[in-house]
Amino acid sequence: MADVDAKGIALVTGGGTGVGKAMVRALADTGWTVVIAGRRLEVLDEAIREFGPESSAKVHAIVADVGIPGSVRALFEEVESRFGRLDLLVNNAGSGAPAVPLDELDVEDWNRVVAANLTGAFLCTQQAFRIMKAQTPRGGRIINNGSISATTPRPNSAPYTATKHAITGLTKSCALDGRAFDIACGQIDIGNAATDMTERMRAGIVQPNGETMVEPTIDPKLVADAVVYMAGLPLDANVLTMTVMATKMPFVGRG
Q: Which domains can be identified in the chain, with CATH numbers?
């Protein structure tokens, strides 16, 4: 069984790129042993190399597709086998669909986004509950990446918005169902963290009135620092929802 740092064992899905990678680095830098999960080993390995020797020693890559039940089951079984417990799950993996009118959206794109964003979070949460309920000391924490689309949509974003609204329901259900087992569950809603996903925004993004606007972004490290704060609370305290966003982005009053 691998050595465990004082903060405990964390699992971050979709941790090889973007804001997930920033979360992994921040958790490792603050004393967590972090399992980084994603579909492509080369992406995970490259992320770990970027962290440098001190942080990378605390990060372990496991290949998994969160939309496939068997893959998720194998992921959590390996985490439990290698580390003996799980103290933190960050459901970060997700995907979007082409920004096309709703009536032109392929059902395959809908199903792909639902599998990655919603079914994946459910499957990982289910496996985390199983471990957290049985381990000693009992309990743990789950943090879901909701996105501000969990509150307000952008134009032509039905699959992404629907799944992120559903993540809010999953967060609240898990917060309720986890109470009796010392499992805390919260959600971070992120607005315009500067990652590869938001790179297209440099040329402007369509607004509800049809205009195209270049929107401000923020450093993903600010989001990662917020996750570190949420993760570091004692289990008798919980951040149920937190929004971290670019101050001047058109979110409040959108539409």
A: 9-245 (3.40.50.720)
